């Protein structure tokens, strides 16, 4: 019997990741492209990626799109879904990128033995996804936009139109601002990571300040959701050894509730896997 597969597409601010994924969440084939700034080019690259992945499997059952907030990307996931469905004879489902990440963690990752899993993605901004009993919690439809909770209402202007949103203090945006404040020539997370590894005191301080901001933001999430486990993902999470202590210190000092576990994701391409597993679950529930 041939193996049924599902396609997961994870659109990020820097890269578009795609994968052909088994029903158990194993990536069989994967592709990565840079994320362009123009809407038309994003559409073209996603369509090309999906077509290439479909050609690798005659048993592909559906496509899942892991999509960021339209605040950060000039293309809504719902529009991308409609365009794919017109071109490709497969069902397409779309979900918030952090929710896809959290779903993957709850099914096959660090959260698989827990009922309430909060996934946090630290990339261009900050995304949040909550999974309860292996189901994405959506509220009326868009719950867990933790990156747009307010950390400082006198803070920097956010693309959403508000001021002082959490994602302006953490992720790549926060790092760039902190690097500028500390008079670094570089604003790139990878460069600041290397400097911290080499013991640069200013770089280490930047990561500590970011950790404090993140810790305060997570306190708000803990007090509202009371998750059993928080899983950190995204490129910035790989610098956890530099910001973990400051983050945990703020959580311990400020949280009203006793915090659960906090772990850094060990999944490779969790957004891709989560999107594919979303497609599998949705396909299984749909009338075939």
From TrEMBL:
Q: What is the lineage of its organism?
A: Bacteria, Candidatus Kerfeldiibacteriota
Gene3D superfamilies referenced in this protein's UniProt entry, alphabetically: 3.30.420.40
Task: Give the highest taxon in the source lineage.
Answer: Bacteria
Q: What is this protein called?
A: Glucokinase
What is the species listed in this Swiss-Prot or TrEMBL entry?
A: Candidatus Kerfeldbacteria bacterium CG_4_10_14_0_8_um_filter_42_10
Family, similarity comment = Belongs to the ROK (NagC/XylR) family.
Question: What InterPro entries does the annotation carry?
Answer: ATPase_NBD, ROK
The record ties this protein, via SUPFAM superfamilies, to: Actin-like ATPase domain
Q: Which Pfam family is one of those matched by this entry?
A: ROK
